[in-house]
Amino acid sequence: MTAKQPIDGERKKRDSSFSLFFQRNNLYKIIGLIVIFIFFLLPVLRLIWLSFVNDGSVTMQYYTEVLREPATWKTVKNTLIVVGGSTILALVLGILFSWLVAYVQLSGKRAMQLFIFLPFVIPSYITTLAWTQFFSASGPVTAMLSWLPGELAAPNLYSMSGIILLLGISHYPLVYLFTVNVFRKIPRELEEAAATSGLSKQRTFWKVVLPLALPGIASGGLIAFLSNLDNFGIPAFLGTPANIRVLSTYIYEQVVGFGPSAFSRAAVLSVILGLIALLGTVLQWFLLRRSRVNETNRSDSTPRIYLTAGKQKLVEALLWIFLLVTSLMPLITMGALSLISAYGVPFKLENLSLRNYEYVFMTDVKPMSALSNSLQLALFTMIVCLVLGTAMAYLRFKYPDWSTKTAELFMTIPYALPGTVFALCMIFMWLEPVPGWNPNIYGTVWILFIAYVTRFLVLQVRGSYTAFLQIDPSMEEAARTSGAAGWVKWRRILLPLLFPGILSGALLVFLMALTELTVSSLLWSSGSETVGVVIFGYEQAGYSTYSTAFSTVLVLGILLGGALFMLLGKLWDRKVLKNK
Amino acid sequence: MKKFFYGSATVCLVTVLAACGSEESGTDSKAGIAGEGVSGTLDFYTSQPDADAQGLVDAFKAQNPDVNVSIFRSGTEEVVSKIQAENQGGNIQADVLLVADSVTFESFKADDLLLNYKSPETESLDQSFVDPDGTYAGTKIMATGLIVNTNDVTELPTSWTDLTDEPTSGQAVMPSPLYSGAAAYNLGVMTRQDSLGWEFYEALQDNDITITQGNGAVLESVATGEKKYGMIVDFLAARAKNDGSPVELVYPEEGVPVITEPVGILANTENEEASKAFVDFILSEEGQKLASQQGYTPIREGIDAPEGLKTLDEMTILDAEAVELLETRSDDKTKFGKIFGQ
After folding, report:
1. What is the pLDDT of residue B291?
2. B219 shares its domain with B326
3. Contact map slice: A 32-91 vs B, CB within 8 A
4. Mind telling me how many Å the CA of B68 is from chain A's nearest CA?
5. Both B295 and B215 in a single domain?
6. Residue B176 lies in a domain
7. Which residues of B touch A259 (CB under 8 A)?
8. Partner B contacted by A243 (CB < 8 A)
9. Name one Pfam family in it (chain B) (predicted).
């Protein structure tokens, strides 16, 4: 049908023993799909089932009801605008940053990377609070604008563009994370060849570099798209005052709307949301059809573009200004809030104390146990996802047929649904998987573990899959002809090549699981409270100063961990890879 | 369970499931021997702040050391969704429920999910806060009043209608009934008052009031001076004032809607004795003194309210029939959404 077909055929032929084994054993495929079906799709289907049932009989009543309401269509339209706009913003920022970091001679790149992650780690209620203060009537933006001539007003964040801006800024790190390694792997020779053939720098970027970076861009873009789609915090905070609803907030309104049809209506809207997610996934497949890799390069961190000293300084300054505003400003706001004794008192020395920290870490026992629970959950989730996700990505890469595509789709859905809805699905499913049989998973820490793995696995699959797409199939063949098989092949050839890509997926899973909020707030139980549950609890009780203190420590801890990690990376470069 | 988790979480999911399925322990519980102390396990679902819920459970356990109470705490909306999902899934885990308002309990009662239990302690309560059928009873009084930023406002408002006057235009904030159950209750009650009615909400919209998600956001907004006036649940404002925030709490002269954080027992409880003992304790003199210490107006007569809050007999209460509010809640929300352009 398309250009992809012969490549697939080629790949299969080259690896005939294994693929024949697989083709003859459709049984394995089916078993695999059934397991994936049970863990990923069945919980969601039990919710969707509710949208078809009324008093025990099958009905389309909820669909006709919901689809007839103008509010539904207005919400869908808002969602498409908000998600489309914020995804484009995330893509532009993410591609720009990853290209600059991968290609251009700049100093302090490692520190830059850390700050790029921040907006993604800082809880969204902090981000929104910091930004609304930044743009408020008494904030710095208004003050700066008042120096300028003319009647300039600070932009209103409580608007469609405000939601798009904050979503885009919160999620561009995802695009960055998936793309930066891909940029580093683009063979220099190709660009040189393009230059020799007379292509200008710009045309080389559009014709050569960007298409080759497509696997990373498509994966990062898809994850950013899904994250924008399921985000609740930002549109709820900024959209409520402006009367802007998107699907995630509208679904939440339905769920908490009491009435007997609350879940059914929420289910109908979830189906619409799922269709939008499906659309994004298919679009991304379509984009990737045309990408193909001919050569395998080790990731190449040395810059390719050298600027004059002055220009370099200018670019660095611009980048740091952006990072300081988008990453450091919310962090400082959060730190400052955590030191004051109560909201609204002036930020003066006599009003500052460590009282909030003292309460969180000395008086209250929950935060420490929550931290320990979340770390364990995040770690085990990361390990399981690392193994299962990479295995899945390998299969998806080797055998891009209906079964692996379907499997990937199943895995995407739990990530696309709003957290509250997904948590409800988990309750339906695991309370009594078979009527009358309660396996005692629900109500223990296991339900959180299963929920995290099912929700975040797709991140690892995308991360690892992107890494696989960077490998020319001939590498594997070469490994085998040289006598490296099985584990040796993986350890000596594949894993070192795949390492950076797989790791960025794992890092993402770890951070997501560590700070997860909406799913945990419905599924935790005594003894298994998580970081998100504690923060949510403080927020709801009106103790925002406590939650900011806890979040500050959490973010600083992540920064510290990140710094250590980068240091290790530096050592790895020097000692193991022997790159100067 | 945690140790178990520790040990085996590295094995793959399938093994994990098998291990879990064969495990015998869990939420099974045995009712205590009637008369002599209660025992067993109790699942307590609540929307009270974490520290308060824990304080309550600790005080109860001091009297009933053989009862093991597990707490699930989340926002009222989340707790209700969780129970409804458990009900859909075929098995409600909660034994005792304590969340925001009577309307929520009326909805559970309508679905026959609550146990009829008239605690002897309810005799000392104002009967308007006790369900005549005995499925639930209020545990404290939480009024919604006005909060004002004292840095910006010198003349305190006295009436709800001050929020609809020209001087407060664009400077007030309220929680959204679409997100907060307590705000939805207020909406139902206030639109049923002759002095306020839907005209009040239409006037609020004309006066450009800002709508936020919940009471916490209202507090942040007014305390930081982003807005000058807000509608808020009283104890949050009183506590912020005690902590030093530049805010003042006002009980408007028309009266205030109150929610009572009722408590009830789920019909399919596995530990009826302990559940009853727990409800008795919450409504007892000791339990009510604890509520007052925690910063809430107690519902039981004769116990003082904490600093900065009014006691029940000092308030004018705006009231409406809970059953009626339940029936019209969905319509009320839709109407609210229309007025505010959603």
Report:
1. 95
2. yes
3. 35, 39, 50, 71
4. 11
5. no
6. yes
7. 329-330
8. yes
9. SBP_bac_6
Our CA-based measurement puts residue B203 at a distance from the nearest CA of chain A, in whole angstroms, of 16
pLDDT of residue B31: 39
> ipTM of this predicted complex?
0.84
Residues 63-92 of B with CB under 8 A from A: 70-75, 77-78, 80-82, 84-86, 88-91
**Whole-number pLDDT of residue B2:** 45
Contact B5 A342 (CB under 8 A): no
Query: What's the CATH number where B41 sits?
Result: 3.40.190.10
pLDDT band at residue B11 under the 50/70/90 scheme: very low
Contacts of residue B326, Cβ cutoff 8 Å, sequence gap at least 6: A258, B103, B106, B107, B110
Interchain pair B216, A539: CB under 8 A:
yes
Q: Which of B1, B21, B210 faces A241 most closely, judged by CB atoms? A: B210
What is the pLDDT at residue A284?
87
Distance CA A91, CA A221 (A): 6
- Residue B328 placed within a domain: yes
Flag whether residue A549 sits within 8 Å of chain B, measured between CB atoms. Answer: no
Residues B334 and B198 in one domain: yes
Q: Do B217 and B321 have their domain in common?
A: yes
Q: Residue B21 — very low, low, confident or very high, per pLDDT cuts 50/70/90?
A: very low
Please indicate, yes or no, whether residues B147 and B135 belong to a single structural domain of this protein.
Answer: no
Which tokens in the block code for residue A482? 């040289």
Q: Which amino acid is at B236?
A: L
Cβ distance of B236 and A542 shorter than 8 Å: yes
At A304, the amino acid letter reads R
B 142-171 residues inside an 8 A Cβ radius of A = 149, 151
Q: Return the residue of A nearest to B240 by Cα.
A: A342
Which residues in chain A (126-155) have CB-CB distances under 8 A to chain B?
129, 132-133, 136, 138
In the predicted structure, residue B178 carries a pLDDT above the cut 50: yes
Tens digit of pLDDT for each residue in B251-273? 999 999 999 999 999 999 999 99
pLDDT the model gives residue A6:
45
Q: How far apart are CA A32 and CA A391, in angstroms?
A: 12
- B23-47: b (≥16 Cβ within 10 Å) or e: eeebbebeebeeeeebbbbbbbbbb
Q: Does B3 fall in a domain?
A: no
B9 touches chain A (CB under 8 A): yes
pLDDT of residue B19: 41
Residue B196 has pLDDT above 90, yes or no: yes
With vertex at residue A220, the alpha carbon angle to CA A217 and CA A221, rounded to the nearest 5 degrees, is: 75
The answer, for B334 touching chain A at a CB cutoff of 8 Å, is no
Distance CA B143, CA B126 (A): 16
User: In chain A, which residues have pLDDT < 50?
Assistant: 1-17, 20-21, 580
* Residues in CB range of A460: below 8 A, 6 or more apart: A385, A386, A388, A389, A390, A393, A502, A505, A506, A508, A509
Looking at residue B67, what is its pLDDT?
Answer: 95
More confident residue, B281 or A117: B281
Q: How many residues does chain B have?
A: 342
pLDDT band, very low/low/confident/very high, at B30 (cuts 50, 70, 90): very low
Interchain contact A511–B (C-beta under 8 A): no
Q: Are residues B168 and B243 in the same domain?
A: yes
Q: Which residues of B touch A351 (CB under 8 A)?
A: 244
Cβ neighbours, 10 Å, residue B154: 7
On whether both B189 and B334 belong to a single domain, the answer is yes
- DSSP element (H, E) containing A408: helix A402-416
pLDDT at residue number A343:
80
DSSP A57: E
pLDDT digits (tens, 9 = 90+) for B48-100: 988 899 999 999 999 999 999 999 999 898 999 999 999 988 889 999 999 98
Q: Would you call B26 and A438 a contact, using CB atoms and an 8 Å cutoff?
A: yes
- The number of distinct structural domains making up chain B is 2
Residue B1 forms part of a structural domain: no
> B216 and B334, same structural domain?
yes
Supply the range of the domain harboring residue B322: 141-258+315-340
Nearest by CB to A243, from B81, B82, B340: name it.
B340
